Amino acid sequence: MTEQKRKKAVYLFVAVLAFTALANGLGSSIFSNYFNEVFQINEVQRGFVEIPRESPGILCMVLVAALGFLGNIWMSVVAQVLVLAGLVVMGWLSPGYGTMLVFLFINSLGMHFFMPLNDAISMDLAEKGKVGETLGRFKGVNTLFAMIAAAIVFLGFRTRLFSFEENTILPFVLAAELTAGAVFLLVCMARLMPQKGAVKNHKLLFRKQYMPYYMVTLAYGCQKRIKIVFAPWVIINLLGQGADTVALLTIVVHLAGTWAAPVLGKLLDKLGVKNMLWVEAAYIAVSFSAMGLLAGMLAAGSLDLRDGLTWLVFGAYVLCVLFEQFNMVHSYMMRAIALDPSEVTRTLSVGLSVDHIMAIIASPVMGLIWNAWGVQYVFYLAALSALFQVAAAAMTEK
């Protein structure tokens, strides 16, 4: 591929990332409210809804292995078509509960399918010696438009422009239109770029040489529970804040991420994988421990809403959730240790599945720990999981 074509492909992919980030922010970020207001589900049903939402993450490696012959770009087209199918049904067709679960699964399958492909394509488009910087820039674009989507959701529901009371769910409709745009742009990319990432071997790929990557994704599955479940629950349950506060904090996280992602990408090129894993481990240990300490004080009644120190809780929340920006280090490491470039996408998909298996196990375990010993120990346990990053760093050459 010529440099001119590469630059054109980069511009197209930036637009794809913008469209998919907006669509994800308008779609999946409001699913919890959608389940509650449209279907009035109870706590038991809410737990079961996570099965069609999270199980596609485990199936991702099977799908990548089966469709690997298409190459990364065409697999991305398939992924976004699946996302689109789910949004169309939920946005326009007012499905019953059972049908909704089916198309929720299809939508989630597409979203999870695209995750490893996103990183693989990002690295394919990078200039030589600037893989980390390129990953950081692409991550920054994704984070910026996710922030814009969060602001749109906040304003849409505050002004009652968005509502779940109509048969047509406007945020899902907008997300579907954006996803259709992403499909079109990916087809343009596929016609512009030579097929890359295609494989003839459709077996699931596990290699002992890739153990450092499996270790960090295993830890990431545990650490991600803090971002998705337990840190927000501290804000909602212990501080008594509503969805608008969480939305505003999400905007702050995304704003910080648009700055942090490019910086981390440049550091990745400068310091290398080994040193960045040490940085990641230290960041997780400090930020999660700080949040655990503050959450424990809240639970014990040492802090309340009238105490100025509650702003430290908001700051610790932002730092905890911001750790996700380090995920680019894991993808970069996989590329660096790959025995064959064609194995990168398949191994990233295996890592995603390992991450989700750990997530499914960790969530109830952490919930039991919160209930039995206290909220602070959930965060201390997640901080301790940074030892996996330390071990992976020790096993990585540079």
Largest sheet: none
H/E topology pattern: HHHHHHHHHHHHHH
Instruction: Note the overall shape.
Output: globular
Q: In total, how many beta strands?
A: 0
- Separate helix tally: 14
Q: Span from first to last CA? A: 29 Å
Spans of at least 5 consecutive residues whose pLDDT stays below 50 are: none
Q: Which structural class do the helices and strands define?
A: mainly alpha
> Which percent range describes the beta-strand content?
under 5%
In terms of quaternary structure, the protein is single chain
Residues in helix, %:
over 70%
- Radius of gyration (CA) equals 21 Å
Average pLDDT taken over every residue: 84
Detailed description of the structure:
This protein has helices spanning 3-26, 31-39, 43-67, 72-92, 97-124, 131-158, 170-192, 211-238, 243-300, 310-322, 327-337, 344-372, 375-384, 387-395. With 398 residues, it is an all-alpha fold. The mean pLDDT is 84.
Pick out its properties.
mainly alpha; 398 residues; 14 helices
Question: What is the strand and helix layout of this fold?
Answer:
Elements: H1 3-26, H2 31-39, H3 43-67, H4 72-92, H5 97-124, H6 131-158, H7 170-192, H8 211-238, H9 243-300, H10 310-322, H11 327-337, H12 344-372, H13 375-384, H14 387-395
Helix pairs in contact: 1-6, 1-7, 3-5, 3-12, 4-5, 4-7, 5-11, 5-12, 6-9, 8-9, 8-10, 8-11, 8-12, 8-13, 8-14, 9-10, 9-11, 9-13, 9-14, 12-13
Short description:
By secondary structure, the protein is mostly helical. It has helices at residues 3-26, 31-39, 43-67, 72-92, 97-124, 131-158, 170-192, 211-238, 243-300, 310-322, 327-337, 344-372, 375-384, 387-395.
